[in-house]
Amino acid sequence: MELNPNFSEKASTDYYLVKSAINGGDQAYAELMGRYRDSIYFMLLKMVNNSIDAEDLTIEAFSKAFKNIEQYSPKFAFSTWLYKIATNNCIDFLRKKRCTTVSIDNDTSDINSGSNISFKAKTLNPEEQLMKEQKHKLVREIVEKLKPRYKRLVKLRYFDELSYEEIAQELDIPLGTVKAQLFRSRELLQNIIRKSNKNI
Questions:
Q1: Structural domain boundaries of the chain?
Q2: Residue 78: CA atoms inside 13 Å, Cβ hemisphere, count?
Q3: Are 13 and 78 in contact, with CB atoms under 8 Å apart?
Q4: How many Cα atoms sit within 13 Å of 150 on the Cβ side?
Q5: What does the alpha-carbon distance between residue 6 and residue 187 come to, in Å, rounded to a whole number?
Q6: CB–CB of 25/62 below 8 Å?
Q7: Hey, what CATH topology would domain 9-100 get?
Q8: Tens digit of pLDDT for each residue in 63-111?
């Protein structure tokens, strides 16, 4: 992987950070995330118009980029590659969201046309409730296998449902560190799940 001579100073710095990350430099990941976290977030926020979704999609974008960082080609700037991953992931998210969203209005034409529209009850039946409880138990068992610092982050974010800002305040660590360690936690969880061959 050779440096593109046409790169700007910023792109050149990114290139060396990517090389460091590939060689096992954890700090390089945090620096790359710090350089692009806000711009990726605001780009995604414009696309989804929801701050919580934008935050989660930002973490997912970095997670996917860092997981596949060895596939990065220095023919293009790292930022270009990262934005493409973030954009494509967001488009997939919006597509799935559209497929699962049902629009309801007061038009009764569907009734007259003979169409049958059924709506699933919001409450779970006993079997579904049992499956949900077993699923939660399994997730907690897997989370317990994480290192203490990652375990605490995951519990605060997904069990206690704290925001990234609240977690940073609770643990007295920078917001960027919270987000960087959370994407690392997700990656570790996925590896544990794959090794245990358990479906969630």
A1: 9-100, 124-196
A2: 27
A3: no
A4: 17
A5: 34
A6: no
A7: Rna Polymerase Sigma Factor; Chain: A (1.10.1740)
A8: 888 888 889 988 889 999 999 999 999 998 888 877 654 433 334 334 3
